[in-house]
Amino acid sequence: MSGQLVTIVRKAADRVAVIDISGELNGGGEDVLMEAYTAASNGRTQTIILNFTNLEYMNSSGIGLLVTMLIRVQRQKQQLLAYGLSEHYQQIFELTRLNEAITIYDSEEAAVTGVVAPA
């Protein structure tokens, strides 16, 4: 199964959904990622948390997909958070300034707590 993008959508708290991302995030994963976003944002979801713990690889097309998702999230007046990024991908988020639009947390618990009790 290595390489292929796999997503699992689950509810983390009231109005909070998590998308677990496994495998490779690249141009070929657009349908999978957007279907996961649609499933995650049904109902009253206000916050979507991306779990990158099992991400194997992400290229510039994958970054582009995250930007596309971010635009959709902002149009729906939702917020996008992330956790589980390796140091390498945290640096890429900083270089692309994605970290300014997608808040990065150390863990799912920290992200959910950040939503439930914003600082």
Q: N-to-C SSE series?
A: EEHEHEHEH
| Mean pLDDT level | 94
- Overall geometric form: globular
CATH top level? Answer: Alpha Beta
CATH superfamily: STAS domain
Termini Cα gap: 39 Å
Q: Which architecture would the CATH scheme give at its second level?
A: 2-Layer Sandwich
Strand content: 25-35%
List the domain count as a whole number.
1
**CATH fold-level label:** Transcription Regulator spoIIAA
Helix content: 25-40%
Question: What value does the Rg take, in angstroms?
Answer: 13 Å
> Mind describing the biggest β-sheet?
5 strands, mixed
Specify the structural class: alpha/beta
Topology, number of strands: 5
**Major β-sheet strand ordering:** 1-2-3-4-5
- Give the low-confidence spans: none
How many helical stretches?
Answer: 4
Describe the structure.
The chain has 119 residues and is of the alpha/beta class. It has four helices and five strands, in the order E-E-H-E-H-E-H-E-H.
Short description:
This protein is 38% helix and 32% strand.
Keywords:
alpha/beta, five-stranded mixed sheet, 119 residues, 4 helices, 32% strand, Transcription Regulator spoIIAA
What's the structural blueprint in terms of helices and strands?
Layout: E1 6-13, E2 16-25, H1 30-40, E3 47-58, H2 60-75, E4 79-83, H3 87-95, E5 103-105, H4 108-116
Parallel strand pairs: 2-3, 3-4, 4-5
Antiparallel strand pairs: 1-2
